[in-house]
């Protein structure tokens, strides 16, 4: 047998072993995943900064500028 024939035989033996092991393995129970609870209005308001006094400029990735509205600087600060 050539080297490639030996490699093929080893690969087929490993595949057969893994198939046999998978067939005899007990099935794992699937745990149900509950959706996260919606946040209350107070929590959402505390997380997001007030947009009235911020510049609000958005960059290409969707981040917004955190400088004050009408800032004199040419650059924006994103968060």
TrEMBL record:
Q: Where is this region: Disordered?
A: 1-79
Q: Which residue windows does the record flag with biased composition (Low complexity)?
A: 21-31
* Annotated Basic and acidic residues bias: 1-20
What this protein is called in its record is: Uncharacterized protein
List the source organism: Nocardioides eburneiflavus
């Amino acid at each position: 047998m050539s080297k490639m024939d030996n490699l093929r035989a080893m690969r087929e033996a490993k595949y057969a072993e893994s198939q046999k092991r998978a067939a005899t393995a007990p099935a794992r129970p699937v745990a149900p995943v509950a959706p996260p609870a919606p946040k209350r209005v107070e929590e959402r308001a505390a997380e997001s900064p007030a947009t009235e006094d911020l510049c609000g400029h958005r960059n290409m990735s969707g981040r917004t500028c955190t400088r004050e509205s009408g800032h004199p600087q040419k650059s924006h600060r994103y968060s």
